[in-house]
Design brief:
Pfam family, one: Xan_ur_permease
Distance between the termini: 21 Å
Main location: membrane
Number of domains: 1
Largest sheet: 2 strands, antiparallel
Shape: globular
Subcellular location: Cell membrane
Helix content: over 70%
InterPro entries: NCS2, UacT-like, Xan_ur_permease
Oligomer: single chain
Number of helices: 20
Number of strands: 2
Protein name: Purine permease
Length: about 450
């Protein structure tokens, strides 16, 4: 491969930023309004998310003696954390979100030492059920936003439904007729196109962009010092463990792409860096971070495997995070346009859960029962939380969270029904993870 000069490295790094940008900014765009943030706070949340994406990426790529996989991988917020963060924020406040993120990051760093042992308790029948529960629980958020956002006077108007449908159709068309890089940024392009159409319809206002400053400094604990709640910590820890398992698969698949054989020490260092990135996300009041598989796909597509390109992407993300006008520009996207993009994106979370479940042996009635009970109980407690109204508040905070109660149901039932298979070989589980993520990035 030809030697890359600084201009080419920067250009390729910016291409990585574009590939992950929609995935990075849509998380704060969803979570912020859902937990009651105003426009100024939302702009800051987007800025700090981009900044900490950059820090997390550099931590993983550059690494050190005890941290970092040292492969060309970008870190961003996992969609599986969106539903739990909204639930925690609405039930216990925004500071409880960051307390849970910090605590779960510390737990991830500890668990990274024992990942091979932990994976036994999270086979596809468990992780697939958990991810499916999270994905299905997000669909009401997408549909409410597609209608214009709950409480909005224009909720359900023809204009909102048109914009949501247009955005959704554009994503589908781009994924049908384009491949590679254009497909990777289809969501970003559809959001831009939907916003342009909304502007000509008189819906978009640039007031927030005009009022935003050109530069600001990041501030730890911007939204307040974290508070630590047991049920919130348990929720985010479950999400973090699922992310650890997915990231292990991403690392193994990326190792194949980069022709580098990874050993257990490399995996531990990668997961340890991911845990530290989650802690940093909590301190800066942003999000928990995990490896983005779409950027692994870009590495496989371009055949550019040098870490310098991703280091450049990390620096670009940090610079963008210091420019409030960039974040404010993102906030002008109408809710209906966002909602149209959320439907396939959250649907993909459900699809990921189904993909994980596809490797499960459903000829065994036990596995059918695990999936049926965990998803049924998880969704039931989320849809009808009043069923637990007579329980003590400390217990209610735990069981009213459908993701937690559904996940615990899957884990416990797996222990009951599949206790013999829990002792299956570590190598088989790692090989399955690698194969899953190799298929995903092709």
């Amino acid at each position: 491969m030809e030697k890359l000069n600084s201009w080419k490295v920067g250009t390729l790094g910016f291409q990585h930023v574009l590939a992950m940008y929609a995935g990075a900014v849509i998380v704060p765009l969803i979570v912020g309004p859902a937990i009651g943030l105003n426009a100024e706070q939302l702009a800051y949340l987007i800025s700090i998310d981009l900044f900490t994406c950059g820090i997390a990426t550099l931590l993983q790529v550059i690494g050190g003696k005890h941290f970092g996989i040292r492969l060309p991988v970008i870190l961003g917020c996992t969609f599986t954390a969106v539903g739990p963060m909204i639930a925690i924020g609405n039930m216990q406040g925004i500071t409880a979100i960051y307390g849970a993120i910090i605590a779960s990051g510390i737990i991830v760093m500890i668990l990274s030492q024992f990942m091979s042992k932990i994976m036994r308790f999270f086979p596809p029948v468990v992780t697939g059920s958990v991810v499916a529960i999270i994905g299905v629980s997000l669909i009401p958020v997408a549909m409410n936003n597609a209608a214009g956002g709950q409480g909005d006077p224009s909720f359900g108007s023809l204009e909102n439904l048109f914009l949501a449908t247009l955005t959704l159709v554009l994503i589908i068309v781009m994924n049908r007729f384009f491949k590679g890089y254009m497909r990777a940024i289809s969501v970003l392009l559809s959001l831009i196109a939907g916003t342009i159409v909304a502007y000509f319809m008189g819906i978009v206002s640039f007031a927030e962009v005009s009022n935003a400053s050109w530069f600001h400094l990041v501030q730890p604990f911007y939204f307040g010092f974290p508070t630590f709640n047991v049920s919130a910590i348990l929720t985010m820890t479950l999400v973090a463990i699922v992310s650890m398992i997915e990231s292990t698969g991403v690392f193994l698949a990326l190792g194949d792409v980069c022709e580098k054989k990874l050993d257990s020490k490399d995996i531990k260092k990668g997961l340890r860096a991911e845990g530290l990135a989650v802690v940093i996300g909590g301190i800066f009041n942003s999000f928990p971070y995990t490896s983005f598989s779409q950027n692994v796909g870009l590495v496989a597509l371009t055949k550019v495997k040098t870490r310098n390109v991703v280091i450049a992407a990390g620096v670009i993300l940090m610079i963008l995070g210091l420019l409030p006008k960039v974040a404010a520009l993102t906030t002008i996207i109408p809710m209906a346009v966002l909602g149209g993009a959320m439907i396939p994106m959250f649907g993909m979370v459900i699809s990921s859960g189904i993909r994980m479940l596809s490797s499960v042996d459903f000829s065994k009635n036990e596995n059918l029962l695990i999936v049926a009970c965990s998803i049924g109980i998880g969704l039931g407690s989320a849809v009808v939380p009043a069923i637990f109204g007579n329980l003590p508040e400390s217990v209610r905070l735990l069981v009213e969270n459908g993701i937690v109660v559904g996940s615990l149901t899957a884990i416990l039932l797996n222990l009951v029904f599949n206790y013999k298979e829990i002792n299956s070989s570590k190598s088989e589980q790692l090989e399955q993870l690698k194969n899953d993520h190799s298929m995903e990035i092709i």
